[in-house]
Amino acid sequence: MTAEDTVAGVTARAVDGDGRISITLQVNGREQRIQVRPHHTLLEVLRNELGLTGPREGCGVGMCGACTVLVDGRPVSGCLLPAALAEGHELTTIEGLEGPNGELHPIQQAFVDHTGFQCSYCTPGFILTSKALLAEQPDASRDEARAYLAGNLCRCGSYVKILDSVMDAKERLKG
Amino acid sequence: MPEPLRLFQPTSIEEAVAVLAELGDDAKVVAGATALTLLYRQRLIAPGALVSIGRIPGLKTIEVVDGELRLGALVSHREVELSPVVRESIPVVADAFGKVANVRVRNAATVGGVMAESDYASDPPAVFVALDAVVDVQGSNGKRSIPASAFFVAFYETALEHDEIVIGVRVPVPPAGTGAVYHKFVTRSSEDRPCVGVAGVVRLHADGTVADLRVAVGAAAETPQRFWDTEALAIGKPLDADLIAQVADAYADQVDTLDDMRGSAWYRTEMVRVWVRRAIESAAAAAAPAR
Ligand SMILES: Cc1cc2nc3c(=O)[nH]c(=O)nc-3n(C[C@H](O)[C@H](O)[C@H](O)COP(=O)(O)OP(=O)(O)OC[C@H]3O[C@@H](n4cnc5c(N)ncnc54)[C@H](O)[C@@H]3O)c2cc1C
Ligand code: FES
Ligand code: FES
Fold first, then answer.
1. Looking at the complex, does the CB of residue B226 fall below 8 Å from at least one CB of chain A?
2. Is there a contact between B114 and B77 (Cβ–Cβ < 8 Å)?
3. Fold of the A106-174 domain
4. Containing H/E element for B246?
5. Domain identity same for B69 and B114
């Protein structure tokens, strides 16, 4: 394969000998340059290349939310998004939520205080989705929170305590 | 090692179309990637090249022009759901997009993607078919417009040529006083795909007779189902329980329902009967009688 692969005047992203392209991601406020295959998902790349294990694979098909990443503040499934298409966007994982001295984000603290989890596999996804919810709807009711979070699944069934955590986090964020 | 997957990121529609024309079936368009990633990873498709249209400017517009709501191909489901322009002009469109999957899928999935995917169990297609929407596409031979009812051809098959991309959808804004609803009936979980989805549009004369009635049924057959002859029977008649039941029965008779894990063909037929009736009832309730 030649270095330049141009079709109808459009040049494909250059690949190395292993079929990888070089991409730059903006993750938790830091620029990261990595080599990926075009079909590698953001979830795989965050976990395997960047060591960010907060996003997890549950279903792998967009239904559970364990892999949630905020893209420009909006929750998306990392398991459905090719990492190469996440270039140019601001990405946030659970690792990006703590403060400069390691203090927990108020939503994280609310989940701890209410024990809004059991095994905690789903927790990063719930916290990130709650963050987007409370940014969009700072006064979200319990029902609105339930509807927004309906696509996040918790195998342990911690839903009641999760909603308690989110409702308390809402008050904490208002200060 | 198989040939590496190539990624093209054209910055104009013309460039994208030219790459598709040259590479033929070996190239796949990618927009929000929610369906494409799954197809690729489940090895249902194995393209040699991806043509991402995400860098093409001008495909993210939401506007009302000349009595039509215009949605660009790259507008996300969530943007349609929340758009004040959509909510004011044709609220049922915002409502239907808001009922899709979960918030993560709605943030990524696009208007062009749901059209081109032509999944029988998607929600927006039935609404577009009921509202007489038109799909604008562009290929090597230029632009053309396809009625939504002719765009969906079969399971995962559309009227698109391999070198054509969807550039937008136009929806005529119904006359004032029109009631339009979308009922999504799910059988498993709240954020599941529909077992049956019914879009109903009703406009009444001042005397309560039908000025306009349109019904499209989604997720029950290969493509959204609409029966113009049945609709025509209702025009000019008083919209009473008998007439509504006649239309609902006619739809239940005519839709060749399919079996899947969300419901058997028999069950779907009965649900078509129920939800067509309810869609007409609630569209009529939402319609204001003309003065
Ligand atoms: C877990 C899950 C649940 C879902 N539930 C629902 C539901 O309940 N209701 C519902 O309606 N939908 C649902 N969907 C979404 C839907 O079926 C598709 O996944 C989505 O609409 C595709 O949009 P996209 O932009 O991500 O398309 P992509 O995945 O990028 O592309 C989909 C297909 O369309 C082609 N394509 C994309 N854009 C264009 C274009 N502009 N021109 C030509 N071809 C194009 C691609 O080549 C590909 O073949 C669900 C999806 C997931 C993952
Ligand atoms: S792993 Fe992505 S949604 Fe379940
Ligand atoms: S706490 Fe175990 S999956 Fe939610």
1. no
2. yes
3. DNA polymerase; domain 1 (1.10.150)
4. helix B241-254
5. yes
* Res B213 pLDDT > 60: yes
Q: Do A13 and B22 touch (CB under 8 A)?
A: no
B29, B138, B186: residue to mutate for ligand 1 pocket, most atoms within 8 A of CB = B29
Cα of A121 vs centre of ligand 1, distance in Å, is 27
Residue A150 has pLDDT above 90, yes or no: yes
Q: How many domains does chain B have?
A: 3
| DSSP single-letter state for residue A76 | E
pLDDT at residue A130, rounded to an integer: 98
**Ligand at shortest distance from the CA of A119:** 3
Query: Does residue A2 carry a pLDDT above 50?
Result: no
- Chain A environment of B23 (Cβ under 8 Å): 7
Nearest Cα of chain A lies from the Cα of B101 at a distance, in angstroms, of 7
Chain A contact present for B19, CB below 8 A: yes
**CATH number of the A6-97 domain:** 3.10.20.30
Among the partner residues B4, B15, B101, nearest to A10 by beta-carbon distance: B15
Residue B1 lies in a domain: no
Residues B190 and B274 in one domain: yes
ipTM of the shown complex: 0.96
Q: Does residue B156 form part of some domain?
A: yes
Confidence of residue A58 (pLDDT cuts 50, 70, 90): very high
3-state per-residue secondary structure call for B28-59: EEECCCHHHHHHHHCCCCCCCEEEECCCCCCC
CA-to-CA distance for B197 and B272, rounded, in angstroms? 8
Question: Ligand 2 pocket, A77 CB below 6 A?
Answer: yes
Q: Ligand 1 centre and the CA of B21: distance in Å? A: 22
Same-domain status, B203 and B249? yes
Q: Are residues B87 and B151 in the same domain?
A: yes
**Which amino acid is residue B103, in one-letter code?**
V
Residue B122: CB within 6 Å of ligand 1? yes
Q: What is the mean pLDDT of chain B?
A: 96
Ligand 2 proximity of A60 Cβ (cutoff 6 Å): yes
Which of B42, B103, B110 is best to mutate for the A interface (most A CBs within 10 A)? B103
pTM: 0.97
Closest-CA distance, A75 to chain B, in angstroms, reads 5
Residues A108-145 have pLDDT tens digits of: 999 999 999 999 999 999 999 999 999 999 999 999 99
- Helix A123-136 to helix A106-113 angle (10° resolution) is 130
Q: Which residues of A90-163 form beta strands (DSSP E)?
A: 90-92
The residue range of the domain holding B19 is 6-52
CA dihedral A83, A34, B44, A77 (to 10 degrees): -30
